[in-house]
């Protein structure tokens, strides 16, 4: 790692980029422990403050993970998800070679409030399924998802949702999923979310909302999800 003290580029930034390069090239494997701040500072003859700033930024960006009382480790690679096809969590994880699973937090029929009823194009107080799931990849929690589906549209089986895929259940019932609109915004994990996602309170998360429609034009679902910012990266291809 070469640090150029005569460069106008801030030292912390040079250290940050050098560490990133080592991780991206695979020289530092995921799960391995990195040197302590003191060792970095001695090796590169910079202050510990400078090292700390570089490491803090890499922790915030998800490259490194701090474990209390143990040290700082190289994180696993982020899951890259293309924002292209309309796919389910199960399909996305399988396509990347991860084992998808869900922890069903709750499955119940409730009355739609005004806001949800409007999006699902049903009357206020009509029954909807409210499904809360923690979505896991290789047993690691990735997202918390709350899904609302009109009960008059389809009969959903709790056991199928528990063990499998909502989209496959919808398709097995003879419906065709057509398109969705989705928004994505940055936020921070609240206490409960941080516990479920096994991240620090205040860690970055991505809030995603999806509204999905069937080929017959009817709304299928409204989904509110909280994705881990340190494990997820959404990719988009653009053409001009
Ligand atoms: C994805 C969708 C969600 C859908 C779910 C179905 C996003 C942001 N959300 O998580 O809208 O309900 O897949 O997954 O991608 P499943 O078929 O595996 O249950």
UniProtKB/TrEMBL annotation:
InterPro entries: Bact_HTH_transcr_reg (IPR050679), Chorismate_lyase_/UTRA_dom_sf (IPR028978), Tscrpt_reg_HTH_GntR (IPR000524), UTRA (IPR011663), WH-like_DNA-bd_sf (IPR036388), WH_DNA-bd_sf (IPR036390). Residues 9-77 form the HTH gntR-type domain. PROSITE patterns: HTH_GNTR. It comes from the Bacteria. The keyword Aminoacyl-tRNA synthetase does not apply. Keywords: DNA-binding, Transcription, Transcription regulation. The keyword Electron transport does not apply. PANTHER family: MANNOSYL-D-GLYCERATE TRANSPORT/METABOLISM SYSTEM REPRESSOR MNGR-RELATED, MANNOSYL-D-GLYCERATE TRANSPORT_METABOLISM SYSTEM REPRESSOR MNGR-RELATED. This is GntR family transcriptional regulator. It comes from Fictibacillus barbaricus.
């Amino acid at each position: 790692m070469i640090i150029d003290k005569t460069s106008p580029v801030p030292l912390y930034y040079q250290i940050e980029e050098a560490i990133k390069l080592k991780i991206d090239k695979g020289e530092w494997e995921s799960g391995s422990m990195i040197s302590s701040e003191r060792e970095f500072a001695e090796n590169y003859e910079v202050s510990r403050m400078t090292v700390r700033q570089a490491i803090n930024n890499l922790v915030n960006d998800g490259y490194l993970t701090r474990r209390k009382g143990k040290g700082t480790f190289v994180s696993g690679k982020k899951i890259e998800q293309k924002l292209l096809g309309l796919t389910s969590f199960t399909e996305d994880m399988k396509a990347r070679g991860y084992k998808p699973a869900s922890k069903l937090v709750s499955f119940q029929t409730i009355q739609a409030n005004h806001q949800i009823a409007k999006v699902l194009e049903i009357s206020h107080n009509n029954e909807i399924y409210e499904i809360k799931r923690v979505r896991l990849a290789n047993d690691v929690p990735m997202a918390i998802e709350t899904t609302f589906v009109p009960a008059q549209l389809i009969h959903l089986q709790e056991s199928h949702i528990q063990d499998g895929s909502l989209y496959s259940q919808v398709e097995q019932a003879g419906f065709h999923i057509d398109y969705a609109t989705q928004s994505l915004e940055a936020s921070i994990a609240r206490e409960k979310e941080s516990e479920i996602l096994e991240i620090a309170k205040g860690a970055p998360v991505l809030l995603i909302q999806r509204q999905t429609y069937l080929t017959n034009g009817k709304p299928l679902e409204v989904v509110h999800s909280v994705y881990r910012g340190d494990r997820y990266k959404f990719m988009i291809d653009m053409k001009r």
